[in-house]
Specification:
By secondary structure, the chain is mainly alpha-helical. It has a domain at about 10-80 and about 125-185: Lysozyme (Orthogonal Bundle), CATH 1.10.530. About 50% of the residues lie in helices and about 5% in strands. The chain contains 10 helices and 2 strands. Strand 1 (about 10) and strand 2 (about 15-20) form a beta hairpin. Helix 4 (about 95-105) packs across helix 5 (about 115-125). It is globular, with a radius of gyration of 15 Å. The two termini are about 20 Å apart.
């Protein structure tokens, strides 16, 4: 688990890595936001928020959530869905509008009378944006799925992706998952 004070993570085998270095290894384009939209965040900018949001999760769970965030946000470049541009879809893990609304309500944000894009705007500030994947994981995935992912196994990854509603064997998703496993010493599990 990440240390909230130092941002250091201890991977399996005792390897120590900073949260920023882990993010950059999993999401290679997160080293810079040059030429990107203002909503883009670098690993250095995102690390403190992700550390806080994920401090109570196992390395396997963290690896999977970061892999999902990497793919869905294109290495933290986007906080809203750009293709096909679904209203209200966004945050770092690109939740659908209904989930975004539930997340906003869970954060005690006023959603009354707001359209999906206005609700999304409530949860895209960094302090909410980077907590959306852990929220979804704990609120929408069963305890069985959460437990399967504790050790960062392939079985756990596939169960998590099924919970999310996507194909965990997709080549692009697998690339992020493989990098996350490598960073945290979960290879071959």
């Amino acid at each position: 688990m990440p240390s909230p004070n130092t941002g250091l993570l201890v991977a399996r085998g005792g390897k120590v890595v900073t949260a920023q270095a882990a993010l950059e290894a999993i999401m290679p384009k997160s080293t810079s936001c040059d030429g990107q939209l203002p909503e883009c965040r670098t690993a250095a900018q995102a690390a403190p928020f992700l550390i806080k949001a994920m401090e109570n999760f196992s390395l396997g769970q963290i690896a999977a959530m970061l892999a999902l965030i990497g793919l869905e946000s294109e290495d933290m470049r986007y906080k809203h869905n750009i293709s096909p541009g679904r209203p209200g879809q966004g945050t770092s893990n690109m939740m659908m509008a209904d989930f975004t609304k539930e997340y906003a309500i869970s954060k005690k944000l006023d959603v009354d009378g707001k359209d999906p894009n206005e609700i999304l705007a409530l949860v895209t500030p960094d302090e909410f944006n980077f907590g959306s994947a852990p929220w979804f994981f704990t609120q929408k995935c069963t305890k069985e799925v959460q437990d399967k992912l504790l050790g960062g196994t392939q079985e756990g990854w596939l169960a998590y992706m099924t919970c999310v509603g996507v194909d965990g064997n997709n080549e692009s998703r697998m690339a992020y998952w493989t990098r996350a496993q490598q960073v945290f010493g979960l290879n071959g599990l």
